[in-house]
Amino acid sequence: MDETIALAGNPNSGKTTLFNELTGSRQHVGNYPGVTVEKKQGTYINNGYKLNIVDLPGTYSLTAYSLEEVVARDFLVNEKPEMVVNIVDASNLERNLYLTLQFMEIGIPVCIALNMMDVAETRGIEININKLSRLLGIPVVPTIARSGKGKKELMETVAKSIKNTNPAPLDISYGDDVDKALGEIEEKIKAKNFLTENYRARWTALKYLEKDEQILKLGQKTNPSLSKELEQIVQKVSDHLNETLDTYPEAMIADYRYGYIKSIIKQGVIRHNQDRNRLYTSDKIDKVVTNRFLGPIIMVMVLIGLYKFTFTYSEMPVGWFESFFGWLGEFAETHLAEGLLKSLIISGVIDGVGGVLGFVPLIMFMFFGISLLEDSGYLARVAYMLDRIFRFFGLHGSSVMAFIVSGGIAGGCAVPGVMATRTLKSPRERLATLLTVPFMSCAAKLPVFALLTAAFFAENEAMIMVIITLIAWLGALITAKVLRTTVIKGESTPFVMELPPYRLPTFKGLLIHTWERTWQYVKKAGTIILGISIILWAMMTFPNLPESKTKIFEQKRQTLLASAPASIANEVEAAGKDPKFSPGAMELKKQLSTIDSQEAEAALKNSIAGRFGMALEGITKLAGFDWRTNIALVGGFAAKEVVVSTLGTAYSLGEVDLEESGSLSQTLARAPGWNSLVAFSLIIFTIFYAPCFVAVVCIAREAGSWKWGAFSMAFNTALAFCLAVAVFQIGSFLGY
Prior knowledge:
Blueprint: E1 2-9, H1 15-23, E2 27-31, E3 38-46, E4 49-55, H2 67-79, E5 83-89, H3 93-106, E6 110-115, H4 117-122, E7 125-127, H5 129-136, E8 140-142, H6 151-164, H7 176-192, H8 201-209, H9 213-222, H10 224-245, H11 249-265, E9 270-272, H12 281-289, H13 294-335, H14 340-357, H15 360-376, H16 378-392, H17 399-408, H18 414-419, H19 427-436, H20 446-456, H21 461-485, H22 507-541, H23 547-563, H24 566-573, H25 583-606, H26 608-620, H27 627-635, H28 641-654, H29 664-670, H30 676-688, H31 693-703, H32 706-733
Helix pairs in contact: 3-11, 7-8, 7-10, 9-10, 13-14, 13-15, 13-21, 14-22, 14-28, 15-22, 16-17, 19-21, 20-29, 20-30, 21-30, 22-28, 23-25, 24-25, 25-26, 26-27, 27-28, 30-32, 31-32
């Protein structure tokens, strides 16, 4: 048995937790064809049968109000899975069954996973499973996704039901006026076989009455004249309902669906064993956690705790990674013949990509902490608390989640953050949000911040990261306020959101979420960053130093050797791979290494990237940036991790004294022209400058115009440079 089933449900219903429990490591993540919505697939194997499981985006309905709803519906219609497992929150049964009815109306086989039974029990809610199943006419299986309880019974029920299920679609009465229009539209659809190859005629009629944008566009394209006729019927009933009941068809349909659900629930499906108005555990916690005064203090303390946890426990594994890549570089130095291949492998790959991969443990610990906050339900409270602040700056409460996804608590990504703005209904608030979410401390910026804090602020890493986070948020909010009062004027819209109950995350779920995000980072380093590093290595290597200049450095070496006592010169020239020099030979070796470093630096300056960096230095020195930093920042336009890899390559090509070699942070700490003020100036610039190229493309696509993508690059970079210059100049004036 090898069948496909779909997991579907409301956000915060435990759908993804159940998916992780069922599939474990047998899952992979991609995107749905043609869209940027994440697609998760996995397999469940037990008792000789195999089920392919697709985790659909969380949605409240099958009406095309958002891209997630369109994607979920299109998958069900086009891919036709053998069954939909609808994850229903047992503690919010009435609201969750609204989606269930829509699955039944479209005619898809459905099995309900009645999840969070433990939460319902603590709230004094007792559900008669058998009666609910009988009244709905579909299987209902109680589950607790976070502990895995009920998952085996659920899959056995699904496997059994797939063989025996041929469901009759659910037809609900929506009142005389709507039913009359519904019947009239249905008859016309059947008569012309209008869209019937994919959709039930009654369901299509319902979508016309609900003014479903996707179905209307499809109908207008398929049969314009009939579609116009159906829209006229809808307009007629809409006008009638507006005049007589002060309502419209969409609202009537929703009301009758909820009425149908209530009629089921009132037949003894739910019994409350305790006072329904008692204060639940989540509410008790929220009285403290979301308190107007205590809430923000707790939020900052949580943030400090997250960074303290990350830097404290990742320090040792980060050291292991640095030692490994250091050993790898020394191994390549010893065993590879001199030439371009050796330079590419050491400077382009090991020092470039290795510099980025060295932060994998730190990234992993950060993602683990964020997953803990997310799965517990705390991040939703952060959005709730920040709504009042966001409205003051012309944004919407829903913007908060976009900021968090982008790295509001370091470690996200601007691309899904930009896509998360789709939940905002106001075009102006949406545009202001997607233009400012790239300011957040995404996972790509995190290695840059970690590198600079390790080099110059090692004793206060956690506090510096908190300061960076607050600067990013404050800068984004002020920029949003400026945009909303100038180029994107308009009123703010109200904010309503659901606060999920607090839950104790499962260790397995945390590990899966952490691994998924870390693997995306590693995969990016092994593909995109590797490619860019090789290109930048080539730009920092070619053209080679002219022969005339090479001869000058060679003459300096020969002159130095000739001036030294013959015994010392012979000792240096005859030294093996692991020499033990006398004091005189050590001094001569140091002088020769200085000449080698000067030649390597001259070669780097002569390269394409070096010339470009030198050309910019006249301006960027106002912010404290030298030509090497300029090269790294230009590479950062492609991806922010490249800043670290390019600095690694640049200092590797320009510094050949292996006795002084160490981690990149150690190299920067002792490099001329670097100090804590320069590092902080670079941190400020990195926070605000242009989004990576993929994020720019995403901004242009989401905003519907390339002008906004170009605007984000130009505006963000100009803002970043002005702020960096201000920091460096003021700091220099104050003597830092």
